[in-house]
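Researcher: Structure prediction, please.
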Amino acid sequence: MTRIPLRKRLLVRLLFTSVLIAVCSVAATAWLAVATTTRALREEQGQALADDMDILAELSGYAATHPTWKGVEAKVRALSAKTDRRIALTTADRTPIADSAPEGASLPPRAAATVDPLSTDTYTERGAQLTGVDPRAVGPYRLTSGERHELDAAAAQLRTCYEQRGYESTLTHTPGGRPVVTADDGSSRSPAVDGPCQGVQSQLDTPMSTEQKALRALEKRAEADCPTPAGFDRKPLRLVHATGGAGLAPSVISELDRVDGTKSLSDLQACLDDARIAQLDPYVAPTAQLFLGGGDNPATPRWNMSPANKAKVFGTAGLVLALTVAVSAVVATRLVRPLRALTEAAQQPPDSHARVPVTTRDETGILAEAFNDLAERREKLEAQRKALVADVAHELRSPLTNIRGWLEVTRDGLVEPDPALLGALHEEAVLLQRVIDDLRDLAAADAGTLRLHREPVPADDLLAQVAAAHRVAAQDAGVTLRTGTDGTPWLDADPVRLRQALGNLVANAVRHTPPGGTVTLGARRDGGEAVLTVGDTGTGIAAEDLPYVFDRFWRAEKSRSRRTGGSGLGLAIVRQLVAAHGGTAEAASTPGTGSTFTLRLPAATVPAEDRAEEARTEGERHTARRGPLRRS
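Model: Predicted structure follows.
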């Protein structure tokens, strides 16, 4: 028995495949668990970041509306209870301002943010980050209660004016207390402003005394610190209210009339912003550091697998691998067992024709059945081979023995070499040559070296030639030989090989037809095929023998009589020659009635002139014979 390397054994491959699948499954499960956990942690971190933004926005708003941090302790504790986070405010040198943790608790290593309503990156609402001054830092621009009451009355009047003209509107207030009416299209002005409502809108746009006072102070500071660029004339400062997330935020701008040049005004605007920040500084709380979390723990949660969890994960993975290997080993063993039986049977001596038991109905069971069928066919082929060798030896030995015997007695002077003796020897040599030629043709067909010289061949001429070649033998056997065609079919074939195939069929039919019988050759066109038939009124072939009539050295009659036995190669040669032409050979028979052999071959397309010539020739033949066309 051939020894298979360990790495190439089917059992090892199955185990390796199972382990690989298990590892991939465990890895995919672990990845899915980690990905899911990571997603959950990210969502939690996103929530924590949103809470941090809320905390920063609340504390920045407190700083924007209070000149000091006094009283912020209550807000810090309220925010800490709401977000379940530690919140601490300190000065730049970490002097505590307010802390939700007990006294003495250590601060995180880094501050989460800087609370400065006058600086950039101030969070005012979830998801929005504004740059510049917190809009809630209004300082000296905050209106008095009387001014607010006056403006609210004007805003109510403006809304009534809008409604009378079919416009919906909403009312909001800036951090400084100024009301702003917004039209239904989202703008702060509507087409009605240019009509009857324009006077009311102008009243709302006019700065109140508080705002005018603050603007004059800012303009005085700006004139000292922010010179006007050359080529421009500066107009007085005014307030512009823009919609913001926390309300309507006032901005201070400067309008200048361009005189000449295209000099940028960015430096002037930056100077005006600094002047406004300096104006608001006394009204907001000092800058503070914001710390979130507690002790040395980071502000955002992190996933940390404990040793116990690691042991569980690796233990489960190991258990899955062990179970996979065990199940794979059992399954692989059951799969390999019939394959081993097949291997052992295949390695038996050829003449034993070993079979294997079929124990399952799966793929291996089907393979075992196929192996048994192959062994059975092999046994039959071996028997046919032995019979073939015996038949060939017999067919060659008989004529050779006759030729040798007559030559020896002639050499010894016992018999004179008269014409009769020479004719008998010639007949034996012809028989020997026929068997050898048949074997050579079969060998060439098997090797694919059988050469064909194709040409358009008229079927009636082909049948006539074959009938003429066998008419004498048919008359000697008392058999009538007839031909008949339906139309004028042509074939694309080698005429010599076709005469050989039809000749074998006719010789076989004459041999198996009793005296007084008839052998008929026919031809017809069937679509793209030409159909040739050879029928007889002989003894026929049994139904169980029909599948074997084209096998080599097979004969329904086991007798080796020269009259009925033949060589057993004729029909095999017929099948090979027809197959070489791309056709098929079939046999049909009724015992006691006769047999019919049908050859289907590719039909040929004959040019019109050839068809005309053929028709003329056929007419001349018909006139000369004055009998049925194509009958003999």
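Model: Residues 77 and 100 are 5 Å apart (CA to CA).
Researcher: Thanks, that helps.
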